[in-house]
Design a protein that fits this description.
Elements: H1 2-29, E1 30-32, E2 46-49, H2 78-90, E3 116-117, E4 120-121, E5 126-132, E6 145-151, E7 154-163, H3 171-180, E8 189-195, H4 200-204, H5 228-239, E9 246-253, E10 257-265, H6 270-276, E11 283-286, H7 294-300, E12 304-312, H8 318-334, E13 350-358, E14 363-367, E15 374-375, E16 380-385, E17 392-396, E18 401-407, E19 411-412, E20 417-424, H9 427-431
Parallel strand pairs: 2-4, 7-8, 7-9, 9-12, 10-11, 11-13
Antiparallel strand pairs: 1-2, 3-4, 5-6, 6-8, 10-12, 10-18, 13-20, 14-16, 14-19, 15-18, 16-17, 18-20
Helix pairs in contact: 3-8
The protein binds zinc ion.
Zinc ion binds near residues 166, 169 and 251.
């Protein structure tokens, strides 16, 4: 009898404890975000707390948090999109300004806000893997794209690294991995967001383009009811890029051209010019940027953005990856986000104005100079030999400079841009360069030379 009474009261206590424990667990898993602390669209929704994961450990791909699917509108044909893209040259694109200005390089004055991204709250001093999905269900292409987030223990700016917007550009993917997986959140001031492979569709097909053969890097900021490329661009920009104060978009040379590690930046923008000064041992080339390009649109939205070019597409180049990783790490050190003991002194890039040397006669290109070589006026950079007539034509440098980009040996036709020659300049001189209306990677006759 006595035993039975004791059992009943124990059961009651056990039930109470279970109930209390359950309510504690559910309240810690789901939090209502304070709308006053976040400008993002997720702010008004319930968010889950992202699990704190050691990014160095192998983990399965995360699932995206379900979001409402937008109404499907008939996709406009390619001609419409091209017309629209061209019209962007004339009319200023409508770009929503991101209210927060990039904080000054001195991080002490930054007020810390709760980090809510992709439907998850990432607590301070933690790192996690999230998933971004552009919700392109019409094509069955809603691939969850991994997004790595490290929220540091201390306040600071948010730096974003994006790679493989062109799916065949591989070096940047490895740079993002090396940088992100080498960070200890407890020593980080600020936040790092890395999207190693933005264009998963292209990456899976070893293609520069999306599955509809559009170049994603010409469709920013995008529209929610536009073409496939426009929708993907819109989704990435609103859900991920809008969180960034600084953005480094990693690329490689295209169409069988190899690039010396270099930053392309609009040096007429004083904030961009200041940011570029934080990168060590890398060439800096002034490029205003093309309409629809991620860095152009990010700049217009108040994000300090640059492109980093590393090597050649479809290749994994160890020296290029090393150089890119070193340069990004030097920037994190200079921004006082992640101090390291480096063997160099003050981080310092090299500034270049540039020109392209073109092939005058068709044939097979054989280079006599390599990437990064210093050249003088009159130096022979390569020879083009016609395989039928056996006639050879020398390609002679018109200036003194460095080879910052060059075509790999291949069959070339007259007019082909074979060598990108950097002419040493200064940060001050580059800031004076007029930003004209001609997109940076398109020649005056409309030819795309080395698109980012
Ligand atoms: Zn690219």
């Amino acid at each position: 009898m006595k035993f039975k009474r004791l059992s009943n009261s124990s059961l009651l206590i056990l039930c109470l404890i279970t109930l209390l424990f359950y309510s504690a667990v559910t309240s810690s898993e789901t939090v209502k975000t304070d709308t006053s602390t976040s400008e993002q669209s997720e702010a008004s929704e319930a968010t889950t707390i992202a699990p704190n994961l050691d990014l160095k450990e192998v983990a399965p791909l995360p699932e995206p948090i379900p979001e409402p699917i937008p109404d499907i509108v008939d996709e406009p044909d390619i001609d419409d999109s091209i017309e629209k893209l061209e019209s962007q040259d004339k009319d200023e694109p409508v770009i929503k300004k991101i209210p927060e200005e990039a904080p000054a390089l001195n991080t002490q004055e930054i007020v810390r806000e709760k980090l809510v991204i992709l439907g998850s709250e990432v607590p301070e001093n933690s790192s996690t893997r999230l998933a971004w999905s552009p919700q392109i269900t019409i094509s069955g292409l809603a691939l969850p794209t991994p997004v790595l987030v490290i929220n540091g223990a201390n306040p600071g700016p948010t730096v974003c690294l994006t790679s493989a917007i062109h799916g065949d550009e591989l070096n940047g993917i490895e740079v993002v991995r090396r940088v992100m997986y080498d960070i200890d959140p407890s020593k980080l001031s600020g936040t790092l967001i890395g999207v190693p492979i933005v264009n998963l569709q292209g990456f899976q097909r070893t293609s520069r383009y999306l599955s509809d053969r559009r170049d994603l890097n010409r469709f920013f900021p995008g529209e929610p009811d536009g073409s496939l490329a426009s929708r993907i661009a819109y989704s990435l920009f609103t859900k991920v890029i809008s969180h960034c104060n600084y953005l480094i978009d990693l690329h490689t040379g295209s169409f069988r051209r190899n690039n010396l590690p270099q930053i392309r930046a609009n040096m007429s923008d004083s904030k961009v010019a200041e940011f570029v000064g934080a990168f060590d041992k890398i060439a800096v080339v002034h490029h205003a940027g093309s309409p629809g390009m991620l860095r152009t649109v990010a700049n217009q939205s108040g994000i300090v953005a640059v492109t980093m070019e590393l090597g050649e597409s479809l290749r994994i180049q160890e020296n290029q990856i090393d150089a890119g990783t070193h340069s990004v790490n030097s920037m994190l050190d200079k921004l006082e986000m992640y101090p390291r003991t480096f063997i160099w002194g003050e981080p310092k890039p090299a500034y270049y104005e540039s020109l392209w040397l073109r092939v005058e006669s068709g044939g097979i290109l054989f280079s006599e100079m390599g990437l990064g070589d210093r050249v003088s006026q009159g130096d022979v950079l390569g020879v083009v030999t016609d395989p039928i007539t056996n006639q050879s034509t020398e390609l002679v440098s018109p200036v003194k400079g460095n080879i910052i980009g060059m075509a790999v040996n291949q069959v070339v036709i007259p007019g082909f841009a074979a060598y990108h020659i950097g002419i040493e300049s200064t940060q001050e001189a580059m800031a004076q360069v007029e930003t004209d209306q001609i997109p940076s990677d398109v020649n005056t006759d409309g030819e795309v030379i080395d698109p980012e």
